[in-house]
Amino acid sequence: MIGIPLSHILIFSLILFAIGVYGALVRRNIIGILISIELMLNAANINLIAFSKYTSLSPETGQIFALFVMAIAATAAAVGLAIVLALYRVRKTVQADEVNLLKW
Amino acid sequence: MTSDQIIWVPLLPFIAFIVNILAGRWLKNRAALCSIATSSIACVIALPVCWKVFNGAHFAHQGTWLMLGTVPLKFGYLMDPLSATLLFMVTIVGTLIQIYAAGYMHGDPRYSRFFAYVSLFMSAMLTLVISDNYLLFFMSWEIMGLCSYLLIGFYFEKASAANASLKAFLTTRIGDIGFLLGFLTLFTAIGTLNFAQMNTIMAGAHGGPDALNTGLLALAALLIFCGTIGKSAQFPLHVWLPDAMEGPTPVSALIHAATMVAAGVFLVARSFSLFMVVPNILPIVTAIGTITAFMAAFIALTQNDIKRVLAYSTISQLGYMVTAMGLSGLGAGTFHLITHAFFKALLFLGAGSVIHGAHVQDIREMGGLFKKMPQTAITFIIASLALSGVPPLSGFWSKDEILLAAFGSGNFLVFGILLLTAFMTAFYMFRLIFMTFFGTARNHDVHAHESPSLMTVPLWCLAVGSVVIGIPGSPFMHHWFQKFMAHMVHYPEYEPSAFVMTCSVVVAAFGIGLAGVMYLGQKHWAAAVARTFPSFYRLSFNKFYFDELYSAYLIKPFNALGRKLFGFDEKVIDGAVNGTGQNTLFLSGLKNWIDKYIVDGAVNFMGTAVYFLNSFTKRVQTGFVQNYLLIVFFVLIVFLAFELKF
Amino acid sequence: MTSHILSWIIFTPLIGAFIILFVPKNATHCIKWIALSTTGIVTALTGYALTLFQPAQAGFQMMERASWIPQFGVQYLLGTDGISFPMVFLTAIISLVACLASFPHVRVKEGREKEYYFLYLLLETGMMGTFLALDLFLFYVLWEVVLVPMYFLIGIWGGPRREYAAIKFFLYTLAGSLFMLLGILGVYFAAAPHTFDMTLLVGMPRGLLFQQIVFMAFFLGFAIKVPIFPFHTWLPDAHVEAPTPISVILAGVLLKMGTYGFFRFSYPLFPDATHWFQPAMAVLAIVGIIYGGFVALAQTDFKKMVAYSSVSHMGFVLLGLAALNANGFRGAMLQMFTHGTITGGLFLLVGVLYDRAHTRELNDFGGLGVKMPAYAGFLTFFALASLGLPGLSGFISEFLALLGSYQYSKVVTGLSTIGILLAAAYLLYMIQRVLLGKLNPKWAGLGDIKFAEVLTLAPLMVLILGIGVYPRIILDYMIPTLDGLLKALKVS
Predict the structure, then answer these.
(1) CA nearest B327: which of B413, B205, B421, B423?
(2) Other CB atoms within 10 A of residue A89 CB
(3) Between B and C, how many residue pairs show a Cβ–Cβ distance under 8 A?
(4) Measured between beta carbons, which residues in chain A are less than 8 angstroms from residue B629?
(5) Burial of C283 (0-12, 13-18, 19+ CB in 10 A)
(6) 3 state DSSP class of C46
(7) Which range (B62-66, B265-269, C101-105) has the least confidence?
(8) Is residue C56 less than 8 Å (CB to CB) from chain B?
(9) What is the rounded distance in angstroms from the CA atom of residue B211 to the CA atom of residue C126?
(10) Which range has the worst mean pLDDT, C137-146, C368-377, C454-463?
(11) What tens digit of pLDDT does each residue of B220-250 get?
(12) Among B37-46, B409-418, B488-497, B513-522, where is mean pLDDT lowest?
């Protein structure tokens, strides 16, 4: 376990976060955006665990924190999916660029 | 107990009034029975009481009716010589006239209504006679005025009757208002309206007149006399009485000859103690009376309507009575009032009989009626002789008393005018008789017939009365009546004078003779006289133009003033109100404009400015979630860059 | 119930009004009978209160007191005395009669009985309350309560110019009562401690200038209601346009609220100002009497003539008020009562004729005495009562007012008798044009007065005759209070 240095894990998490940002910004499908957001959250989780392992005296704290993030991500996804479902019922679409009611 | 039943005397006819007005529809001809019965019972009750008073008794009773300030105003009856005399006359004459009316009005559609009014009148007149204070007197006085109004306008489909009734009511009301103010003044001056109390106060005042406010009392007497002028048709308010002849003839006899119009004279007699105390008021009374007596007789000379001649004769005789009162002749005036009531009622009933039989009222269409209606003619002539002052009929004795009062008090001008009037009276009465009953029939369409006995019997009763009623005041009974009256108030008496009697008889005979010559013999003389003195003739024929004067100078300006004020009301006062409204509306319009364009304008300008500015910034708001996210991302990066000091 | 009889009198009509709200709109019979029985109950209650009333007692009786808005010392204070009780009695009778007279009238107007009777009963509550309130604030509130239903009653059920008349009436009266409100506030703040309670306010001393100013403020409020010349022009319009029963209420009760105000508030609160304004009041009274008479003489509209005759007759009330002595006050008080009954009757008779002929133009009529003999009898009776025929109540009141004013001023009395003459002239001229003369063939089909209509007139006739023949039946109730008022005014 010791074999993997901290920098590698951080680079991995950075790549994962960048993919999430990219997805969130360019996907038109709201489901896709939601998934991208999940990716970003997971990247953050990896960071939390990595730092906890390498720097903290009590590694459990980072793990507990990651578990919290996962639980909240799940509830957020559930709310987001519910909104998407409701939107679909009304507008018959899940494309973000077709939902621009708040435009000036 | 002896005298309290007197209150039934006015009450009984009032009950008849109630019954007739409410149940007249079902009573039909029995309405007359109802009125006559109550009136007769009243007569039966009243006469014994009168008899007691004639023998020196005196009754009074009263109860509180109203509080005037802290003074209780008591209503009650007063039976003294004056009221007993009047009561005697009113009950007898009233009952006889009602019996006559039952025949005269037969077949009229408003038969019960007629008797209701007559009963109400009797009730009011009897209340007036026995009342013991001015307020009750005034109240019944006004109700009599109402009855007069209703009965003059009895045939109200005729416009002339409707006008006459209005005229009568309004003219007498002018006098009545004077009367009302008069007894208000009296109340202020002496604090009572009771006749007996007033007499006591006035009797005390003979000693020291300074104790009373004579100025106020003079005003009171003058104003009370206004009532007499109105009611007794004295100059200048006499104009209503001739027109009042539009009423049914029995009404003319009862109200406008025998009783109601005499109430004005009775008022002066009632207030006699007041008039005696106040200086300078009696000459005014004398003057008014004399002017009236002469003027009315002068008008009567040329009138052609049988009832109008009698109406002017009534005015003239009322003038006589008022003159008598003015000459302090309480006995003489009252005496003439009584005798006049009998023979004038008889004259009117006779005229009614003629109208009933011949169906015309213009004496130029009559003539030779003596043979067709002898009973009417004989009684009519008896009454005319009495009126003309032929001895030994009643009118002679009473008229002689008045002439004596004028002569005795040294008013020779008044004496002369009254003698002249007596001459004219004899003349116009016999002009009437000769044109009506003698000569030949002028209009052959007139088919006269004698009236039924229901009408002729009262005529005969009154004829007997006209003959004998003068005796109590004649030398045969040693002037009992005058002495009887003097029990009440002290007034000067004069020794009988043979000169006055002779004058009186001579002018009467001369008048009758001249009428005989002019209207039976030399028929062209009348026209010749009229041609010779055209202005006098026109003045007499047109009744001194009183109606025209009043119409032009009183009635029309009054109506015009009413219309003017109404115009003023609508234009100026209401205009001001509406103007205020309009101005308020205009102002509010102005404020509305200011609000809309200035106040609201500022607010809207702010809005517009903000709107304009935001048209630049609003572009950021694309509505795409990802744009917002991108902005967040970049901003985050920029912040990180700053924070990490790249 | 005995202890709250006055509250019952005031609020029974309100209860009736709310019951009517729960009745379906189409059940017109039910609505009418509720309204009639409510007014009947109020009359019965008033009759019961009459038995409790102590005529010989001068002060307030049957008082009811409760705190209403304690922060400002406003109380619910009721009480009656010889001035207000006759007015309450009059209101009860007139309301009953006018309610009965409403039956045929409202039907014509597209059957809006429910609103009509609701407003009508509300109006009665306001009127009763105005006469019974002894707290200035409560008085003002109830005074305004009268205004609102009146506005709608004229404005909805009136004649062709009803909106104009209703608005004029409302604004005019409101303008007057605002001045009165200022006066009330003035009195309130000048009193120490601040209070609206009449029983406490009466004895308090006030400066003459203050009295004059506040008297003027009250005067405007009351003068418009009476109405006193020159504030009278709302009256002919409102009378002519209002439906018959409302004209009856207007003439019978509302006008009296003004003169009642003088008796109840202006005189006892401002005795010095009262003396100071006496000549002005007398002059206004004569002007009203003569002016109203002349204008009535010029009218060709029957109702307008009666309306202007009201101006003239209310002048006699003012004349008695201005006399400031026992007879004048009695005359004024009695005239308030008799004018309510007589003029109410005249308006009812105008209505009877209008229902049949649909015109009020006097010159169009003529000879109706033949066709409608019973109607002719009633009309003559009321006209005679109005012109002051002795034996009927109008005479007594005018006589007392004149006697009172005579003790004050001869000239004033002399001039005001012109009004009596004018009254005879315009009323008899009216009778001549309507009843006498030849029958206009246009009216050959008119039927005589009906029993239901006679029923509305009969109570008024009984009162007119009863008071006319024996005025003590009502004067004995008024005299102790009026004498007490005079003592308070310190008039010898």
Answers:
(1) B413
(2) 8
(3) 126
(4) 24-25
(5) middle
(6) helix
(7) B62-66
(8) no
(9) 56
(10) C368-377
(11) 889 999 999 988 888 888 888 888 888 888 8
(12) B488-497
- Whether the CB of B21 is below 8 Å from some CB of chain C: the reply is yes
User: Is the pTM above the cut of 0.90?
Assistant: no
Using CA atoms, how far residue B364 sits from A6, B59, B433, in Å, is: 158, 52, 12
Phi, psi of C229 (to 5 degrees): -50, 135
Give chain C positions within 8 Å (CB) of B163.
432
- Residue C427's contacts (CB-CB under 8 Å, 6 or more residues apart) are C309, C383, C384, C386, C387
Residues B27, B21: Cα–Cα separation, whole Å: 10
Q: Is residue C168 within a helix (H) or strand (E), and if so which, with residue range? A: helix C162-190
> What is the number of alpha carbons within 13 Å of residue C257 lying toward its C-beta?
30
Report yes or no: A24 at the B interface, CB cutoff 8 Å. yes
Q: What is the pLDDT of residue C109?
A: 58
Q: Are strands B71-79 and C74-80 parallel, antiparallel or unpaired?
A: unpaired
- Alpha-carbon distances, residue B539 vs B242, B299, B305, B379, B554 (angstroms): 16, 8, 17, 32, 21
DSSP secondary structure letter of residue C265: I
Mutant choice from C172, C400, C417 vs B, greatest count of B C-beta within 10 A: C417
Q: CA of B491: how far to CAs of B275, B328, B473, B486, B548, in Å?
A: 11, 6, 16, 7, 41
Q: Is B410 exposed, middle or buried (0-12, 13-18, 19+ CB in 10 A)?
A: exposed
Interface test with A, best of B614, B624, B630, B633 (most A CBs within 10 A): B624
The rounded distance, in Å, linking the Cα atoms of C390 and C425 is: 17
- Rounded to whole angstroms, the Cα distance separating B139 from B124 reads 8
Orientation angle between helical segments C326-357 and C302-323, nearest 10 degrees: 170
* Cross-chain Cβ contact B622/A100 below 8 Å: yes
Distances (CA, A) of B215 to B221, B277, B557: 10, 11, 33
CB contact under 8 A, C475 and B66: yes
The three state secondary structure string of B194-227 is: EHHHHHHHHHHHCCCHHHCCHHHHHHHHHHHHHH
Please name which of C453, C285, C421, C256 lies closest in space to residue C353, comparing C-alpha atoms.
C453
* Chain A neighbors of B625, CB-CB under 8 A: 33, 96, 99
pLDDT < 70 regions, chain A: 1-2, 102-104
- Residue B628 buriedness (CB in 10 A; 0-12 / 13-18 / 19+): middle
Which residues, other chains included, contact C4 with Cβ-Cβ below 8 Å and sequence gap of 6+? C64
Segment B376-403, tens digit of pLDDT: 888 889 999 888 888 778 888 888 888 8
